[in-house]
Amino acid sequence: MPTVIIDGRELRLSEGERLNGIEAARRVGIEIPHYCWHPGLSVVGSCRMCLVEVGARDPKTGKVTMQPKLAPACNTIVADGMVLVTESEKVALARARVEEGLLLRHPIDCPICDKAGECRLQDYHFQHGQDQRRADIRPFTSRRRDIGDITLFVDRCIMCSRCVRFVNEISGTGELMVVNRGAHEEIDVAPGYPLHNKLSGNVVDLCPVGALADKDFLYRQRVWFLRNHKSVCTRCATGCSIWIDENQDRIYRVRPRENPHVNRWWICNEGRYGHSYVHDPRRLTSPVRRTAAGRAPVDWSEVIDEAPKRFQAARRPAGVISPFLTVEEAFLLCRLLHKWHGQVVLAVGPVPSTDADETFPGGFVISAEKCPNRRGVEAVVSHFAGGVIGWEEFLARAARSEFDAVWITAGYPLPWIDAEQASKPAGVETLVVQDLFPSPLSDRADFELPGAAWAEREGSYVNRNHWLQTARWTIRPPAGVRTEGSLFWELLGREGLYRAQAVLEEAAVEIAYFSPARGPVPEEGVQLTPPTADEPSAAPLSRGPTAIRR
Ligand code: FES
């Protein structure tokens, strides 16, 4: 087995494995500082922060011979018998010199820089820089330039070129380039061709310093006030792993979370910036009951008393399960409606979609399907109903007055139903609509119930490739709103607080599709087995609006 020695620690490689020095060192718990290297981009070896000592061990005598010059770890593929030294006087001096060079002309505007607190230049300077400055301090320039989707602080740039490689290799749009030469090098765009593509926000995450700033986040929060939560994006069926950064129940930033099975290191701008609807003042915040006397806010206890009686007394009730619900919420709602009435008809809510998936040169896919959990919800509905009815079929049957009590869940971040569709359910004596925003349908409802947004709920989503991930709640819902899971839990008469993990366990026991999700689901998620080799869905897609709610 090929063996490498890194700072005296032995690393065994599997046959044919190719790792560079940074990756190999990480395997034995050593972090080599670096700026320009990124695992998702090509290697340029330009910043020289990762310099290490490299040598070779004679297999017969065991004698180690070191090369006289330092080598960049990012550009050194480790091989059998190789010896790397990442901590030595020589290496420390090289790192200090790189830091000194970078800081010669770097503006000291950390107090107003968005990156302060998570800046590699700051962090590495404290770890590897020298405490004395040898050069004169001259006035610094701090130029700011609007280059399209992103703001560029020209003089903060350390020329790592990660952003340029990203637009060439991952988004394939090529807007960014290096202009000028030597000490005058700068990042820029060609006149008339601003940085504008659906993945552009990723260059902000890639920038190791504060040169590329997000217009959506600029000067809104200091990063040390933010709490970071692991979550899952719900804006399309790709289901990217994300970080939600919030402070006092307000989301300030959404960033990609590395997941090799789903999104690698990237997310699209729709997922990154499409969260403002969560704090939209137009959201529903109280249950409303419609009676002969008109519509009036009521207490949740009235809903909990009244809804079971109405559905149990119905002749032909129906439930519409939104593809924005989690697996656990869909499971509890189907169980609840079945408990109330054995003949209940279950349908899957509308699945908004665009014409086609968008695949980028780096392999990232934005799904045409603009909901997070069609596959999970269909598997649950199919388990309880023995098949899947789509939204169009439900509407057609509702228009023929087939149902007298209907519970509709929605939770779409976009306006999703027009007046014509909303007028279709006929002869319904009890209509319950659970949604985020008022709509022509909720205006007709006997009970209009406020729903919680994705970041306020916990549960699991199954993406386009049958990959299940779970997300915890990250912010509290507005006062007066109950999460779907907690409401269904109480209506089912279960003890204590709603626990998504317990419900997923139940679903995994009852439904074979979810059986790989038994036990704690790993952070990266788990692969479910599709029911057939082809698409498992029986529900036709229905088109819906896809613009971000502003
Ligand atoms: Fe190796 Fe920049 S990270 S040279």
What would your notes on this structure say?
- With 550 residues, the protein is of the alpha+beta class.
- The chain has helices spanning 21-27, 89-103, 120-128, 162-169, 202-206, 269-273, 300-313, 327-340, 374-385, 391-399, 419-422, 440-444, 484-491, 500-510; strands spanning 3-6, 9-12, 51-57, 64-66, 71-72, 82-85, 144-146, 150-153, 176-179, 186-189, 212-214, 227-232, 241-247, 250-256, 288-291, 294-297, 317-321, 345-348, 358-359, 365-366, 405-409, 430-435, 447-450, 459-462, 467-471, 526-527.
- It has 3 domains: 3-87, Ubiquitin-like (UB roll); 134-279, 2-Layer Sandwich (Alpha-Beta Plaits); 288-527, 3-Layer(aba) Sandwich (Rossmann fold).
- Helix content is 23%, strand content 20%.
- A 7-stranded mixed beta sheet has the order 16-15-23-22-21-17-18, sandwiched between helices. Strands 1, 2, 3, 4, 5 and 6 form a 6-stranded mixed beta sheet that branches. A 3-stranded antiparallel beta sheet has the order 7-8-11, with no helix packed on it.
- Helix 8 runs parallel beside helix 9 (374-385) and helix 8 crosses helix 14.
- Mean pLDDT is 94; it is low at 533-550.
- The protein binds FE2/S2 (inorganic) cluster.
- The site of FE2/S2 (inorganic) cluster (FES) has 12 residues, from loops.
**CATH architecture descriptor of the largest domain:** 3-Layer(aba) Sandwich
Distance between the termini: 57 Å
Number of E-type strands:
26
Specify the number of helices: 14
The number of domains is 3
The spatial strand order of the largest sheet comes to: 16-15-23-22-21-17-18
CATH class bucket of the largest domain: Alpha Beta
Weakly predicted, low-confidence segments: 533-550
- Give the amount of beta strand, in percent: 15-25%
Bound molecules: FE2/S2 (inorganic) cluster
**Helix content range of the residues, please?**
10-25%
Shape: elongated
CATH fold topology of the largest domain: Rossmann fold
Q: Which secondary-structure class do the elements indicate?
A: alpha+beta
Largest beta-sheet characterization: 7 strands, mixed
Mean pLDDT: 94
Rg computed from alpha carbons, rounded to a whole number of angstroms: 28 Å
